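Ticket #435: bound-state structure for adenosine-5'-diphosphate.
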Amino acid sequence: MTEQPDGTDSVGDPLFADQDPIFARKELLHVGHVPEKNRIVGRDTEIESVADEIGAIVRDDPPNNVMIYGKTGTGKSLVSRHVASRAKNAAQSNGVRCDVVYVDCSEADTETRATRQIATTLKRSTPYEQKVPLRGVGTMEYYQHIWRILDLHFDAVLIILDEIDKLTNSNILMQLSRAKEAGKTESFIGIIGISNKIQYKDSLDERIDSSFGHRELFFHPYDASQLQEIMRNRTDAFQPGVLGAGAIELCAALAAKKHGDARKAIDILKEAGELARRNGDRTITDEHIQQAQKVAEINRIEELTSGGTIHAKLALYSLASLIITGSKESYSTREVYDRYGKMCDLAGYESVTENGLYKQLKEQAFLGVIESTKTGGGRSQGSYLLHRLVTDPKHIVKAVRRDTSLDALPSLEDLQDLTIAHQEQSSQTTFGSNQ
Ligand SMILES: Nc1ncnc2c1ncn2[C@@H]1O[C@H](COP(=O)(O)OP(=O)(O)O)[C@@H](O)[C@H]1O
Ligand SMILES: [Mg+2]
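RESOLUTION: The complex was predicted; output attached.
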């Protein structure tokens, strides 16, 4: 772990020593922070499985490709980076020239952006003299640079394609996995693909052919005791005495309850610290943690929906608002669609078709934000889907309304007022006419 350029690691300098009563090394709570080997909890089997697939490069042999699936916060990115960097070191000490390239496909979401990032990252660690243009050239030119840099400077490269489902097409997988066989480069290329969506597997199987030979690994959510250990390994993020007895247990219990998501667990801890600091308190109390859990859940939903379209957010908001203003826990696609139409009007968006909305809901079910169950009568009536939220609808409303293009949607308070008004009138919901 390195010191932050902004000086958050201020332990050594007396000028800043008293500055933060709560945090000592806050960077330990950043999502991108890669803990040391002995601080990675409960993922030994997964680490070994990834190493088994890619490990051949250490001996200058061809690696397997691997796809890792699992919900958010199950350690996929962490384990991939950790194993890849160990493989690189082991390869280098065997005299195998090896590099690792990490691509976050939620940012580099087109083939051009992803290949550009691979080319520029590879160039950075070599004396490659040609310029890799940042704009004005196409995917093919980036591939050319990649092949040339590999041939000149590397025996092998490991490419981590994180959030691979955000890529607009899967051509890059075909190009990279066939490169050696097609005579484009002599170097071995190992790919670690990562997706939060298990269903991406099916769409991948449809889109690529057998030349992308790969193994699949599935990461499972953590249980409360694993989450406790993950957090306990980071307690030196805080000043001594700030975390009272039971604080970690409570954070873990809250995070384990629904998702087993390590990111959320750590986020609760961080938000609780922020709250304590803002209140001028010297210790983190249960109340801070309870409050922080809400903020962390809203952060989590915002992040989950950040890659989706505006209609995904409108769909979620519609379901949440139905649950808040209505008396049921779950609603049919048709009911959500009716509400969604009204919300599109309010927010100034053209609505998609009912089938389009159904796809958005399905997507949210993949991400684990909603749960859809088939129900319904006999053959004559046909079955239909009922959608319910996995999380508190209030958190959905808050998370969606953080998107400034949707602030015309009723706020949580407006919705709650509507509910009261409707209970009084006991009439049909009508949005838009209400103040
Ligand atoms: N087994 C673990 N031990 C320690 N920290 C972990 C572990 N798994 C996840 N984390 C931490 O939790 C956060 C989320 O993990 P990450 O690998 O980004 O999950 P994913 O990629 O599956 O969404 C990161 O801050 C990571 O360092
Ligand atoms: Mg990740």
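RESOLUTION NOTES: The chain has a mean pLDDT of 88.
TICKET STATUS: resolved
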